[in-house]
Amino acid sequence: MKAIMKRLYKIKNRLYIEAHYLNQFGFNIGQAIKYEIDKDKKQITVMPAIASKKHVAKTTQKTGATVPVIDIKAHEVREFLENHQKVEVEIQQGKIIFTVLEAIQVATNVIDFEEAKNQKLEMQKRQYSVSLVEFGNVVNYQQMDLFDLFQADKKDIKESLGGRISTGIQEKTIKMLSLFSGCGSLDKGFLDENYDIVFANDRYDDRTMKDHHIRTYRNNIGNHIVMRDVMEFTQADIPQVHFVAAGIPCVKFSALNTINNFRDEESMHHPLVEKTLNIIKWSNCSGFIIENVQNFITVKGGIMLQRFKEVLSEFTITARVINAISLGSPQKRNRAFILGLKGAEPNLDIPHISAFTTVGDAFADIEGIPQQDMFFTPTEKTLERMMYVPQGGNINSVPMHLRSKKKLFSNYCQRLDTHKQSPTITHVQDEVFIHPELDRYLSVREAARLFSLPDDFIFSGPLTAIFEALKNCVDYKVSRFLAKTIKKQLLPLLQP
Which domain holds residue 399? Predict the structure, then answer.
């Protein structure tokens, strides 16, 4: 008779189990073991082996008893479990099965946790990871919108609830000014939350983008963008608004920049930052958000954040690094944000409920979507390199004689993994980001979906300009989250 024991375990990126009864199931102290990962079933199975470097170890419990312990911290196990907080452990004779519990079924207007735990959910159903603390804020009737908690599209959920939806906070127009606007990926989230963007700017780019990012902005956001160097603006050029958003160019703050980096300069003032500070003052706004790489808020002991607090002393200011995957994006992308408000304590807390989206989810039903047929053609040597790289692999999988002498770092020549989230996307051609299953570069639409951009967001210009604009994008789910949470904090400050 096969004995079976089941138990739920909370874990931290490792498989760990200790118990005296492991002996009964063939896992004695010193027994060689191996493990297998089944990504489709979301299971890791541990089994006895004839010979292996991994063995059942031993540990002494508080009672003084020595018991078997299995502790697996291999890289692929940590990576598999990094976004999950709970697994179910089933112990059988000669087998231990760790199954990830990650899916919650949304059916009509009921969230059935028990059903989600006990049945296999179809892959196409929307999945959420849940924190009971955050969920408690809703069921205890605190002032939180359930739909914002899920970071879900209210339109989608409204349809599933038969048209019923929370009214939320009364809509008012927030007049907004945008600086260093690029192709409009940050502004898109604010536009879709009904901000009135009355002014935007970016300069002509001689090297790569020319004015194609400006054209993209006009086609998707509006004609209010001005193609002009921000350093030329005077106070007379700046309209009076409620809110300012600025994605200050990040090249001088990026850790990857080893040639001309602000951290190596003697000056403690950055010209674009100082100009932004002036424009925020000239606009007479009640709030602002600054977006940049995460080094922006730590460089030179945090001098940039200090400058904002010194010059804009009438604002209360907070800063936070946000990883796009924490808001349901399929791309791991950390960005720093500085939020300032007049007359209120700003908050950039991330909800503990978000969709878990993989590259495969992002690329679903993508054929026939606009700009899916636009991608670079690899050179013969690049194509040969691609053929050696497995899903989730990089240049380290390529034979030495085919590797580039200039690009030796491991984030070069990366093939995405269908079952995982994407690494941070830079320039698709320069760094060689490869389709999970095809030997080609990512397409324009595939890259756009990794930034969560809607399929009707269309890019203008040649491929080089488009991918240059894409690498600088703010993830749409991040921009939409910012727009929502800032609106709730800003509107009460605009009351007459």
Answer: 375-442
What tens digit of pLDDT does each residue of 290-304 get? 999 988 888 878 888
Mark whether 126 and 273 lie in a shared domain: no
pLDDT in tens, 46-63: 888 877 778 888 887 767
What DSSP assignment string belongs to 199-219?
A: EEEE--BTTTTBTHHHHHHHH
Q: How far apart are CA 115 and CA 104, in angstroms?
A: 8
Q: How far apart are CA 6 and CA 97, in angstroms?
A: 9
Alpha-carbon span 190 to 315, nearest angstrom: 21
Q: Reduced to 3 states, what is the DSSP secondary structure of residue 320?
A: strand
Please indicate, yes or no, whether residues 86 and 40 belong to a single structural domain of this protein.
Answer: yes
Answering whether pTM is above 0.85, one says: no
- At 168-190, the pLDDT tens digits run 334 568 999 999 999 999 999 99
Q: Judge whether 408 lies within some domain.
A: yes
Angle between helices 299-311 and 271-283 (to 10 degrees): 20
Same-domain pairing of 296 and 244: yes
